[in-house]
Design brief:
The chain is α+β, with helices and mostly antiparallel strands. The chain has a single domain, classed as 60s Ribosomal Protein L30, Chain: A (2-Layer Sandwich), CATH 3.30.1330. 23% of the residues lie in helices and 29% in strands. It has 2 helices and 6 strands. The chain has a 6-stranded mixed beta sheet, with helices on one face. Strand 2 and strand 3 form a beta hairpin. It is globular and about 40 Å long. It starts with a strand and ends with a strand. The model has no long low-confidence stretch (mean pLDDT 97).
Length: 126
């Protein structure tokens, strides 16, 4: 099995013992991205819409570093601090996955790292 670690300065550095993504056997397994500004490491200001945009920008940067794009994503998992944010998150999400969107699960969780409102992880094909 081939296994390659993905690391880019265009997305936030990992805040724990994990990689931004791993490429293995033609797949890209992206760790969950939260709404951190890659330059400062701080959670961005704003509500669920602004945070969802930042999360998907970060995810896109990790995918690009792996040689893929959002268009190659086959599955995402969205973690929300509140299911009350579902409609607003979904509206932003839809602007990033406009054609043949991937499979997706959305889960409400008690807390996310750094008090983020949203986190998204993804699997893509190369």
């Amino acid at each position: 099995m081939s296994r390659t670690v993905v690391q880019t300065e265009s997305a936030p550095k990992a805040i724990g013992p994990y990689s931004q993504a791993i490429v293995a056997n033609g797949f890209v397994f992206c760790s969950g991205q939260i709404p951190l500004d890659p330059a400062t490491g701080a959670v961005i200001e704003g509500g669920i819409e602004a945070q969802t945009h930042q999360v998907l920008k970060n995810l896109s940067a990790v995918l690009q570093a792996a040689g893929a794009s959002l268009g190659q994503v086959v599955k995402t998992t969205v973690f929300l601090q509140s299911m009350g944010d579902f409609a607003a998150m979904n509206a932003v999400y839809a602007t990033y996955f406009t054609e043949n969107p991937p499979g997706r699960s959305t889960i409400e969780v008690a807390k996310l790292p750094r008090a983020a409102l949203v986190e998204v992880e993804a699997v893509a094909v190369l």
